[in-house]
């Protein structure tokens, strides 16, 4: 399953792409995640959580921007995962500005980040 562009911010279009590989749900985000697209990300993550997947990977590698609403969603997803068997893993963004937001807010210590 793949979902195309969900919204457009100042950078490249935001998109959510989903697939399942070897029993793992993969949700990949591209573009800029801000308040205007949080709902679509949360809905897709809820869909993934409703599956029998042993692991759910939220891939932020191609995310260019993350605001406070995005940070709040990541924390909520992490909390939900702890109550649902701890299946969530988050792949870090390559963009320095996204990594910096996660570092400055201190949420990286609370998120199930992949190395």
Polypeptide structure, described:
This protein is α/β, with parallel strands linked by helices and 115 residues long. It has a single domain, classed as 2-Layer Sandwich (Transcription Regulator spoIIAA), CATH 3.30.750.24. It contains three helices and five strands, in the order βββαβαβα. The chain has helices spanning 38-49, 68-82, 96-105; strands at 2-7, 14-21, 24-33, 55-66, 88-91. A five-stranded mixed β-sheet has the order 1-2-3-4-5. The longest helix is centred in the middle third of the chain and has 15 residues, at 68-82.
In short:
The protein has helices at 38-49, 68-82, 96-105; strands spanning 2-7, 14-21, 24-33, 55-66, 88-91. It is α/β, with parallel strands linked by helices and 115 residues long. Strands 1-2-3-4-5 form a 5-stranded mixed beta sheet.
What's the layout of helices and strands?
Layout lengths: L1 E6 L6 E8 L2 E10 L4 H12 L5 E12 L1 H15 L5 E4 L4 H10 L10
Parallel strand pairs: 3-4, 4-5
Antiparallel strand pairs: 1-2, 2-3
Helix pairs in contact: 1-2
Key features of this structure:
single chain; 115 residues; alpha/beta; Transcription Regulator spoIIAA; five-stranded mixed β-sheet; 5 strands; 32% helix; 35% strand; disordered N terminus
What would you call the quaternary organization?
single chain
Residue share in β-strands:
25-35%
Number of domains: 1
Categorize the overall geometry.
globular
């Amino acid at each position: 399953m793949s979902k195309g562009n969900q919204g457009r911010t100042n950078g490249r279009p935001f998109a959510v792409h989903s697939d399942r590989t070897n029993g793992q749900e993969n949700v990949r985000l591209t573009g800029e995640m801000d308040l205007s697209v949080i709902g679509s990300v949360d809905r897709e993550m809820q869909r993934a959580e409703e599956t029998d997947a042993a692991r759910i990977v939220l891939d932020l590698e191609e995310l260019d921007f993350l605001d406070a609403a995005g940070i709040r969603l990541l924390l909520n997803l992490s909390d939900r995962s702890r109550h649902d068997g701890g299946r969530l893993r988050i792949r870090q963004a390559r963009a320095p500005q996204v990594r910096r937001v996660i570092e400055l807010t201190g949420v990286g210590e609370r998120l199930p980040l992949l190395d």
